[in-house]
Amino acid sequence: MNARPVVGVLALQGAFAAHADRLASLGSAVVEVRRPDHLAGIDGIVLPGGESTAMSNLLKSSGLGDDLASRLRDGLPVFGTCAGMILLAEEILDGREDQVSFGVLPIAVRRNGYGRQIDSFECDLALAGRSESFHAVFIRAPKIERIDPEVEVLATHDDVPVLVRRGTAMASSFHPELTGDPGIHQMFLDVVEHNVSNTHVR
Q1: What is the CA radius of gyration of the chain?
Q2: 157 among known catalytic residues
Q3: How far is CA 168 from the centre of its chain?
Q4: Active-site hit among 19, 38, 157, 175
Q5: Over the stretch 27-84, which tens digit does the pLDDT of each residue have?
């Protein structure tokens, strides 16, 4: 087993560098994933914010989409933020017909559900299992409009889930990499490390 978890960050488009920096600061080895062979040896992956349609197109043109889908079906831990949440959702309410959806989270999301760039906002969120609030940044954020009962809600804003998890898959409507608080990335690393430990035991 690796001494440190190796976490990939999808680096096709969007805010991947800040995620890589945050993970590295927590002791993770980080791989920027741009090709299918970059998936080899990673213990988890972050799908960053960006433009979901552009990211979807790049997943197809790079050849990454099918290989990543296969790894996710096999239980590779994944954390999707903003556009990454859209990629993980089972249903994209206003997406294009050819848009990539890995469907690992049984939720329905609406792109830009909180409004356009001008409607971006920040707020403090109460996180499940943590006493301190988390300062969250919402930028053209997707909104969850349906969530299945087996999905764990870790934070809400105005009674709408904004941080969720099911098994080894996590997603947030907001950008946790844009604050100085590493708490949510540590939550994901805990999922990765737990999964690695269970796999090693088997």
Answers
A1: 15
A2: no
A3: 11
A4: 175
A5: 999 999 999 999 999 999 999 998 888 888 899 999 999 999 999 999 999 999 999 9
Q: Position 193: which residue type?
A: E
Q: Which residue has the tokens 């349906």?
A: 146
Answer yes or no: 82 catalytic: yes
Outline where 5-127 has alpha helix (H). 16-25, 52-61, 64-73, 83-88
Please name each of the domains of the chain with its CATH number: 6-201 (3.40.50.880)
| DSSP string covering 150-181 | TSEEEEEETTEEEEEEETTEEEESS-GGGSS-
Active-site entry in 157, 177, 185, 193:
177
Q: Is 193 a catalytic residue?
A: no
What span, in angstroms and rounded, lies between the C-alpha atoms of 70 and 75?
9
Annotated catalytic residue within 82, 157, 185, 193: 82
